[in-house]
Amino acid sequence: MTPNPRVLDTATLSRHSSRVLLVSLLVAVWSLALPAPAHASLLPPEMEDALAKYLAIFVLFFVPVLLIVLFWMVHVLPEKIAHKRHHPQLEAIKTLCLLSLVFGGLLWPIAWLWAYTKPVGYKLAFGTDKHPDYFKEHGLPEPEDVTGDLRKRVLALEGHAATETEIAAIRTDLELLETRLANGARSEVG
Q1: What CA–CA distance (Å, rounded) separates 76 from 82?
Q2: Is 88 exposed, middle or buried (0-12, 13-18, 19+ CB in 10 A)?
Q3: Would you place residue 28 in the very low, low, confident or very high pLDDT band (cuts 50, 70, 90)?
Q4: CB–CB of 108/78 below 8 Å?
Q5: Are 88 and 122 in contact (CB under 8 A)?
Q6: Above 90 in pLDDT, residue 126?
Q7: pTM as predicted
Q8: Distance from C-alpha of 157 to C-alpha of 165, rounded to nearest angstrom
Q9: Among residues 39, 72, 147, 156, which one has the fewest Cβ atoms lying within 10 Å of its Cβ?
């Protein structure tokens, strides 16, 4: 039977692996004995110093200013959202944003949530859920303050004895107000 030239015996493999180990050891010793000159930077030393100086100036002066501007922009964001949505409590949200700046941002999430919510009782109390600037911007007449008118009439009635016709007029006005508020609530839901 003729031996297969491709099949190597263990002795041949052992000699081959010992030669590879010896060569790799010699290469490692040679590379340690004769090191090539090392360069820490791709730039010449003078240019590296100039670059470091300008980078330090940028980091010391511009980065803090940039961070302060970013902090300010994030804390004024709820105010801008409330203004865009014509939130009726815009002034209160502005105040909360300023307080949030003073307290290091702790109140900012509350202002942000407040800017995105609609006040529930505001429309019921004032007849609208929009800021007065909304009506000025769109050239619309401001809504009538029906509740204020009713309050004045009730105060006038407290001063003297009310007649049956005055009481009936107030009742019809209250019924109209209730139906208008009920229709407004239905249109918001639908």
Answers
A1: 10
A2: buried
A3: confident
A4: yes
A5: yes
A6: no
A7: 0.46
A8: 12
A9: 39
Return the H-helix or E-strand segment holding 30.
Answer: helix 10-33
Q: What does the pLDDT look like over 87-104, one tens digit per residue? A: 888 889 999 999 998 888
Residues 97 and 81 sit within 8 Å (Cβ to Cβ): no
Residue type, 55: L
| Residues 75, 100 contacting (CB under 8 angstroms) | yes
Distance CA 133, CA 83 (A): 9
| Paired tokens of 157 | 């009635």
Rounded mean pLDDT, 169-183: 77
d(CA 98, CA 3): 92
Contact 59, 74 (CB under 8 A): no
User: What is the predicted pLDDT for the residue at 79?
Assistant: 92
Question: How far is the C-alpha of 174 from the C-alpha of 152, rounded, in Å?
Answer: 14
78 Cα distance to chain centroid = 8
Going through 56-190 in order, the beta strands assigned E by DSSP cover none
Q: What is the DSSP letter of 128?
A: -
What six digits make up the tokens of 149? 């008118």
